[in-house]
Amino acid sequence: MSWRRPARRTSRTRRPRRRKDAGLEQLALIGLLAVVALSLVMGVLRWLAAHPWIVVLTLLAAAAAAAAWWWRRSEAARWEQIKAQGLRYAVDQLDRLHHRQFEFAVRDLMHRDGCHDAQQVGGRGDNGADVKATDPYGRRWVIQCKHKRDGWAGKPVGTPDLHVLNGTGRQVHGGDVLVMLTNGRITSNAVDFAKDQRLHLVDRRLLAQWAAGSRPLWELLRQIPPPRKPSAPS
Question: By CB neighbour count within 10 A (0-12 exposed, 13-18 middle, 19+ buried), where does 202 fall?
Fold first, then answer.
């Protein structure tokens, strides 16, 4: 009768212990990370307590960012309202404006026509630019405004008024379309000078047509430079 070695029974008691050990390691790791994070937070709080001006600057920056966001949102809403209503000016209305308000009105009209970056820049040291804008075709507009209190009866815009615009419109402001715009008259000499220097003129009659109508200024002027973009956005 042959003798057989009894089969060895495998022990299954080690697996639960391994799982338990792995769970304890995970808890220990989580606890360590929590301690490190808490230490970092406490360190930052102590540092901020020692440097309170950082907190003040942070709050000011947050307030400035919130104000900028609110301003952009309100401006977008305002322009949507203007677009919906259809901005129009009678030339007599423009006559009654202050010369700075006149510049803002021109800016608003350019924005109405699709120049979403139109801005009033007139003032001391403006180098001949009162309004700057980029039309939907990518052309950069530089507009110098001459407001006349007496309108057509006032002193006309002459050649000397065009010299600054001609000298800075392209070189300083990078303009593609340089415009002298007035609610008054323009002398014949200035008209000739503008043709020679590729300047564009908007007198009272053309201003009235533009401000009270719905066509953009580039559709009313002649010999406008070609678009930088293939087509305007819809």
Answer: buried
Name the CA radius of gyration of the chain, rounded. Answer: 35
Full-model pTM: 0.64
Is the distance from CB of 133 to CB of 115 less than 8 angstroms?
yes
Determine the Cα–Cα distance for residues 25 and 14; give it in Å rounded to an integer.
17
The segment with the largest mean pLDDT, out of 16-25, 32-41, 48-57, is 32-41
165-172 contact pairs (CB < 8 A, 24+): 165/128, 165/129, 165/199, 166/197, 166/199, 167/128, 168/127, 168/128, 168/129, 169/128, 169/129, 169/142, 169/144, 169/199, 172/127, 172/128, 172/129
Name which of 4-8, 102-106, 151-155, 220-224 the model is least confident about: 4-8
